[in-house]
Write a structure and sequence with these properties.
277 residues; 1 helix; 47% strand; single chain; 21 strands; mainly beta; Elongation Factor Tu (Ef-tu), domain 3
Length: 277
């Protein structure tokens, strides 16, 4: 049995197959370091003016570095376990890292370096780097999952509150709570699902001042989805009939209003909280 440190982590594929580094891949994770998000500043020089003018900034991709040791029972067993580890880490697709210390957050990563184990006997040390194209980690659970610690999807330190929160509503004015950083659908996942009749439907986030409008109609059984910034009705695009504006969510409470409804309806906000760490 491989000893586990608090830096031990699981590799979770896009198909939700999970591989524990210690239990499944015979690898001791001695340390896992996560780099802060590197800032990029954009400045302009103006003739006759000292210094420069800051015109914007953003954050770059993240790097996670794991120092590990792979163990085998003997030489041949080491080779078999090494091959299994290689096959898991070289699937050709990004995967998620979920640490034992923070099981409610995940990092979307790919392997970024040559990590050949330095074999000595039936073990081998190696350092592996993962790169995340996103500046953020995200919650394992979504807002459509049970928001309870019993679900095994959440952890302390995620900004969750003791008040009752809901992400499914049937009234025209309600609040949506965002426990993490800003949710900008141009960068991260956000799906808004409206089911019901409407005419000239409008969604307003009074907290951010944003408004999304649709100049068409919908019937009682129709489903309108805004999948990030792509609006569809019953699976068919309606982008030409909208104002093409995004609806984002500020950190904390967001005051949402739905206008243009006809009769009963249901609206769902489906997303994951995001964090710098």
């Amino acid at each position: 049995m491989i000893v586990k440190t608090l830096d031990n982590f699981k590799i979770v594929t896009r198909n939700d197959d999970a591989y524990d580094m210690a239990d499944d891949l015979s690898t001791l994770v001695r340390s896992l370091n996560i780099s802060p998000p590197p800032p990029n500043f954009y400045r302009e020089k103006m003739p006759g003016r000292n210094g420069s003018v800051r015109v914007g900034m953003d954050y770059d991709e993240r790097v996670l570095t794991a120092v590990c040791t792979l163990f085998g029972e003997d030489y041949l067993d080491f080779l078999l376990r090494r091959n299994r580890l290689i096959n898991v880490l070289t699937s050709g697709e990004p995967f998620y890292i979920v640490t034992d210390a923070e099981p409610g957050k995940r990092w979307d990563v790919e392997v970024a370096n040559d990590w050949t184990p330095n074999k000595i006997g039936a073990s081998g040390d190696f350092t592996i780097q993962f790169v995340s194209a996103s500046s953020y980690c995200e919650a394992v659970g979504k807002t459509t999952d049970p928001l309870t610690f019993d679900s095994g999807l959440w952890q302390f330190g995620q900004g969750l509150i003791s008040e009752d929160v809901s992400y499914v509503h049937t009234t025209n004015r309600f609040d949506i709570y965002n426990a993490g950083l800003e949710i900008d659908p141009r960068e991260v996942y956000l799906k808004i699902i409206y089911t019901g009749a409407s005419s000239n439907l409008k969604l307003k986030n009074h907290t951010t001042g944003e408004e999304w409008t649709y100049t068409g109609t919908s019937n009682t059984s129709d489903v309108i989805e805004i999948d990030r910034i792509r609006p569809v009705k019953n699976g068919l695009t309606i982008v030409r009939n909208t104002n093409k504006m995004p609806i984002s969510l500020a950190p904390g409470w967001n005051d949402i209003e739905v206008i243009g409804t006809s009769g009963s309806f249901e609206i769902t906000f489906d997303f994951r909280f995001i964090y710098f760490a």
